[in-house]
Design brief:
Layout: H1 2-14, E1 26-31, E2 37-41, E3 49-50, E4 53-61, E5 69-72, E6 75-78, E7 85-93, E8 96-101, E9 110-115, E10 125-131, E11 137-140, E12 149-150, E13 153-161, E14 169-172, E15 175-178, E16 185-193, E17 198-202, E18 211-216
């Protein structure tokens, strides 16, 4: 028991992932007769982000006109609208977004916080599609290699349409994009390529000879 307590204190002191600080173990939820609703740590700091774990929430419902509801992954707890008083909840919070609100006045009396570390947004992979100026059409990597297969995922495809007599069309599961035949210029499409799917590209007026495909793997 002493070793477990010591490990928790050390983790909290050094900010290790998943560690809950001592002032976060107990949260204070308050809904007042002045149309305010708050969720704070025991030291009074507004709750905006917490580590996953089990928390004790002291709910102080000060008015019969409002209530306090907490909902999110695995949690949906609320006081009654007509009642007042204090309550104590023990909840286990997991990675995700949680919302607290007053049910009758949810549009104005609400707040939210995040549990865990949000995923880091990764930039999309890039491809370059070219059509024209002659009867050529291709999809290449930024380094210039022709694409026959590519990892599935999110892509930013830069389309360089170099001719007013051709266009570039890309089609496949979840994707249907095209430039106009008379268009000349550069556009960028953000698309999601599905694993195992084949994507075809072509010039619409000359589809028999200006075409190709690649596979998302």
């Amino acid at each position: 028991m002493r070793r477990a307590l010591l490990a928790l204190l050390v983790a909290a002191a050094f900010g290790l992932p998943g560690a809950a600080r001592a002032d976060e173990a107990t949260l204070i939820a308050t809904v007042g007769d002045d149309a305010t609703i708050t969720l704070t740590t025991s030291s009074g700091a507004p709750v905006t982000r917490l580590a996953p774990g089990t928390y004790r929430i002291l709910v102080r419902d000060r008015t019969a006109a409002h209530n306090f509801r907490l909902r999110g992954p695995g949690v949906d707890r609320a006081t009654s609208v007509g009642g007042t008083g204090d309550a104590e909840w023990t909840v286990t919070l997991v990675d995700g977004v949680y919302t607290y609100l007053c049910d009758p006045h949810a549009s104005t009396m609400r707040g939210r916080f995040t549990v865990g570390t949000p995923p880091v947004a990764t930039p999309p992979r890039r491809l370059v599609a070219t059509v024209g100026p002659g009867a050529t059409i291709a999809v290449r990597t930024p380094g210039g290699a022709a694409v026959r297969s590519t990892p599935a995922g999110r892509y930013a495809i830069t389309v360089r349409d170099l001719s007013a007599h051709h266009n570039f069309r890309l089609a496949g599961p979840g994707v249907s994009r095209a430039t106009g035949v008379a268009f000349r210029g550069t556009v960028t499409w953000t698309v999601q390529l599905r694993k195992g799917a084949t994507y075809a590209f072509r010039c619409d007026p000359h589809a028999r000879r200006m075409r190709g495909s690649f596979r998302a793997v």
